[in-house]
Amino acid sequence: MPKISAPTIAAHRAQTRERILAAVAELARTQGIDEISMTDVAAGAGITRTALYNYFPDKAALLLAFAEQGTAGFVERYRAALLGGASPAERLSSFVRFQLEALAEHPHPAAAELGASLGPDAYQKLADHVEPMQRLLVEVLQNGVEEGAFDPVPAEPTARLVLAMISAQRVPIQQGQTALDEAHRLVTSFTLRALGAAEEAGGGERAARGRA
User: Fold this and answer.
1) What are the angstrom distances between the C-alpha of 129 and each of 68, 69, 117, 149, 181?
2) Could you tell me if 149 and 181 lie in one domain?
3) Which is the most buried residue in 97, 130, 165, 185, by most CB within 10 A?
4) How far is it, in rounded angstroms, from Cα 175 to Cα 172?
5) Which residues bind DNA (predicted)?
6) Per-residue pLDDT tens for 133-149?
C-alpha cells in the first residue's frame, strides 16, 4: 500500500483526496463509470474502504467530486490565457481549444453517463457546477454578435449546441481516433461558418496558445 508523506494533516488529506480522484480517473478509463465500486477506488488509491468513506460518503459524492475536478478553474484559465484584443473568432476558437484540451488531459465521462450514476439530485449539483462554462460561452457569442462578427443568434441555445459538438469529440480524442488539433479545427470551423463568421487563419491557435 503506497504511503503518503505530508508535513501536515491537511496536506496529507489533500494528497489522499488527489490519489482517490486519480484512482477514479483510471477506473473510468478501464472499466467504465457505472462499474466503479468504492472497493475498487479504495484499492486503487492505496487506502482502506473505511478510510475512503471518511472522504466521500457514497459513490454519488465521489463521482460529483470527480466531475467537478475536471471543470475547476476553466473560466479563470480561459480569461488569463486569452490574448488581449482578441477577435470574437479567436475568443471562440480559444474556448473550443481549452474544452478539448480538458477532454484530452482529464478523461472524464460524459454528463449523460454521470447522470445515470449520480441520480437526479447529484446530477443537478453537477449541472450547477458546469453552468459557468456555458455562461462564458454565451458571453463570447453575445459579444461576437454585438461587435458584428457573428450573425444574430439566440446565444443560450447556440451555446448548448456548441458544447454538444465539443462533447461529441470526447470518445474519438480519448481513443486516439481524432487528434486534438483536428477536432479543434472541425468544431471551430463548423461553428464559425454557422455563425456567418470568416475564419482567421492561425488566429484561434494563437489565442488558445497565448499563455504567459
Assistant:
1) 7, 10, 17, 30, 27
2) yes
3) 97
4) 5
5) 37-56
6) 888 899 999 999 999 99
